[in-house]
Design a protein that fits this description.
Antioxidant, Horf6, Chain A, domain 2, single chain, 3-stranded antiparallel β-sheet, alpha+beta, Glutaredoxin, 2 domains, binds benzoic acid
Length: about 220
């Protein structure tokens, strides 16, 4: 019997992404060596040949060019064999013309699922939940999503979250609710009385109050 510690390994935002070696649909992978210099989006699905998963994987594939434009590598995962993955990828390609060209990990021994908290036994003891990990080029986990088996994810939000992370890094700003590229961003709040007075006097930015200000970059 495995310890709860192993089953419940839950990486957190800011942690270094746990490293692993795995078999994937594009060959063997050592995660820390894969796609150097790129962002990575590592996502799990509960099972091949299931309907919600097929819509989600198709969504990732249909947005491949957007991820490419944002210097981001996609990596899928489920607790299925490589044979199942290959048959499913081929089946979806034949039936719909959508091709999952990104690697999909065959995590039959559940090693990676456990490492990333994708196996949540009160939801399922044998299938990974729908997780998404956004990992920056320094291998730091920057954003995590977990969805249950019965609710599909939102591809627009996955793409928006990636753009928001990168925009925030590039411009040293915080990103408000429902932000879309081109929208105003949050100016970091002042940390001293002097900065607060400067903020109060600043007429160039949109202010609700000194601590809640937005600007157009
Ligand atoms: C699905 O992808 O349709 C699915 C997979 C596992 C459990 C429930 C739904």
């Amino acid at each position: 019997m495995e310890s709860n510690q192993e089953i419940n390994s839950m990486p957190r935002i800011g942690d270094t992404a746990p490293d692993f070696e795995a078999v994937t649909t594009t060959g063997k992978m050592k995660f820390s060596d894969y796609a150097p210099g790129k962002w990575k989006v590592l996502f799990s699905h509960p099972a091949d040949f299931t309907p919600v998963c097929t819509t989600e994987m198709s969504g990732f594939a249909e947005n491949q060019s957007t991820f490419d434009e944002h210097n981001t590598a996609l990596i899928g995962l489920s607790i299925d064999s490589i044979h199942s993955h290959l048959a499913w990828v081929n089946n979806v390609r034949q039936k719909t013309g959508v091709y999952f060209q990104f690697p999909i990990i065959a995590d039959l021994d559940m090693k990676v699922s456990k490492l990333y908290g994708m196996l949540q036994p009160n939801e399922s003891e044998t299938a990974a939940v729908r997780a998404v990990f956004f990992i920056d080029p320094e291998q730091k986990i920057r954003l995590i999503m977990y969805y249950p088996l019965n609710v599909g994810r939102n591809m627009d939000e996955i793409v928006r979250a990636l753009k928001a992370l990168k925009y925030s890094d590039a411009n040293k700003v915080a990103i408000p609710l429902n932000w879309q590229p081109g929208d105003k961003v949050i100016v970091p709040p002042p940390k001293t009385l002097e900065e607060m007075d400067a903020r109060i006097a600043d007429k160039s930015i949109e202010k609700i109050d000194f601590y809640l200000a937005k600007k157009q970059l």
